[in-house]
Specification:
By secondary structure, the protein is mainly β. It has no helices and 11 strands. The strands form 2 sheets. Strands 2, 4, 5, 6, 9, 10 and 11 form a 7-stranded mixed sheet that branches. It is globular, with a radius of gyration of 13 Å.
């Protein structure tokens, strides 16, 4: 069992920045693909970003490309999502997910463990 905990959410004005953190248990963190998904109010959950096991490859949804940056520190068993130039449309509950096997970074169905989510609210 892998426990996943997100943190760093909050309220920010449009144009501001936030950094989310995702911490996962276990010594095998460096073997996990990690993704971020979000669920805006009244909408379905959607892919945001993902990162390869070593951090060398990153993937982004078109809606956040150029504004968000995903990174990881395997020594700390933590993945980060730096969110810049935030827009009201970024308002959502953000979820961190762990993929223990496979390379399908964008597919929600391929992730095995999920955190409880952290709220991000962007005001205009």
């Amino acid at each position: 069992q892998v426990q996943v905990v997100e943190s760093g959410g909050g309220m920010v004005q449009a144009g501001g920045s936030l950094r989310l953190s995702c911490a996962a248990s276990g010594r095998t963190f460096s073997t996990f693909v990690v993704g971020w998904f979000r669920q805006p109010p009244g909408k379905e959950r959607e892919f945001v970003a993902a990162i390869s096991t070593g951090g060398g490859s990153q993937f982004y949804a078109d809606s956040v490309k150029g504004r968000f940056t995903i990174s990881r520190d395997n020594a700390k068993s933590t993945v980060y999502l730096q969110m810049n130039i935030l827009e009201p449309e970024d308002t959502a509950v953000y979820y961190c997910a762990i993929q223990t096997t496979g390379w399908n970074y964008r597919s929600m169905e391929r992730y095995d463990y999920w955190g409880q989510g952290t709220q991000v609210t962007v005001s205009s």
